[in-house]
Amino acid sequence: HVLGTDKLGRDILSRMIYGARVSLAVSLIAIFVGGILGVSLGLISGYFGGLVDSVLMRLVDLSLSLPTILLALVLVAAVGPSFGTVIGVLVVLLWARYARLVRGETLGIKERDFIARARVAGASHTRIMFRYIFPNVINSLVVLATLQVGYVILLESALSFLGAGLPRPTPAWGLMIADGRELIVTAWWVSMFPGLAIMLTVLSLNL
Asked: pLDDT by residue (tens digit) across 32-63?
């Protein structure tokens, strides 16, 4: 047991390796689903403008103004902790960031000449949004999604630490830290190594 064992005698290293798969799977699925929802609404909002834009942006403002951890705790407490619930909570928290970014990019792109030519050629609104505008916002989306992976790992770990994330005995990093908090003096490695894994993963993704 290179990194020691927890209070039930389970190997810390093997649980951390498995926990990496859990944390990254949660992050990637949540970012993918939240990204699709946010990008679609952002394109619609920026392209059509007017009342549609006002309504969608008010929803974005509402989503961004809510306290993240508190909202997540309420949703998980109402539905119950599970892998699917955590994904759903993270999607609710993530979509607004994508919608706002894409909407801002779309406002500028839709005024360019090649969009006007597409309209003259008879292209539909859907084709213009997803064939001509969307490819021009991919670079910004890649940057945002990369930064979001670290953010989502931290958020999922925080929820698991508070008991509102993935249910036991799933070896999520946040749960492993929570399991070791009462042993921090006598068995510091139980919490320290999963914590280091979170820190190094988030730091490497941000860099």
From this structure: 999 999 999 999 998 888 898 899 999 999 88
Contact 99, 46 (CB under 8 A): no
Q: Where are the beta strands (DSSP E) in the chain?
A: none
**45 contacts: CB under 8 Å, gap ≥ 6:** 52, 53, 56, 57, 99, 103, 106
Instruction: Say what the alpha-carbon torsion angle 39, 45, 47, 51 is, to the nearest 10 degrees.
Output: 170
Entry pTM: 0.83
Cβ atoms 145, 95 nearer than 8 A = no
Contact between residue 176 and residue 16 where contact means Cβ atoms under 8 Å apart: yes
Task: Provide the 3-class DSSP secondary structure of residue 46.
Answer: helix
| Residues 197, 56: Cα–Cα separation, whole Å | 38
Residues 75-101 have pLDDT tens digits of 777 877 778 888 888 888 889 999 999
Q: How far apart are CA 198 and CA 205, in angstroms?
A: 11
- DSSP conformation class of 167: P
Q: Within 13 A of 47's CA, how many CA atoms are on the CB side?
A: 19
The H-or-E segment that residue 101 falls in is: helix 83-109
